[in-house]
Amino acid sequence: MVAQQAATIELSDKQRKILEKLDKGTHTPLHLKTRAHIILNAADGMNNKQIARHNNLNRNQVKKWRNRWDHLAEAVAQVETERPHALKATIHDTLSDEQRSGKPRFFTDEQVAEILTLSCQSPKDKDLPYSHWTPGKLARQAEKEGIVESISTRSVSRFLKIGGSQTPPK
């Protein structure tokens, strides 16, 4: 079995400066620092095994980011030529995790809206013996009224906190 040759990484001066800033930055998230360091090591001629050993990383992790950079290097170079002001953001995006689909939504927008509407009503209007809603009481009432089959107090709290949106604002 023949070992596959790792992709050769070549960086422009601007790309190297941006990656070095990420690598040395005191406020750079650790995952970006690590990935920038991998690319810089690869551009300096280190192989994946050396990079992994030098940075105490898994070789597959090094291979993944080296290949990702190699795959997107042409697009990064094109951005550098055509829109140099966007180079830093492009490099940041290249070294960032890809979007994941995440867990599917469990409650419909209509159910969330009905729970929020219920929260705006007085419990006394429902002939309940308390003056205000707590998330737990609201959850039990939503189940009782058939808005949802079942819901946790935490889910109700989250809907109230973020105004019904099922994904928090960024």
UniProtKB/TrEMBL annotation:
<protein>
    <submittedName>
        <fullName>Transposase</fullName>
    </submittedName>
</protein>
<dbReference type="InterPro" id="IPR009057">
    <property type="entry name" value="Homeodomain-like_sf"/>
</dbReference>
<dbReference type="Pfam" id="PF13384">
    <property type="entry name" value="HTH_23"/>
</dbReference>
<dbReference type="Pfam" id="PF13565">
    <property type="entry name" value="HTH_32"/>
</dbReference>
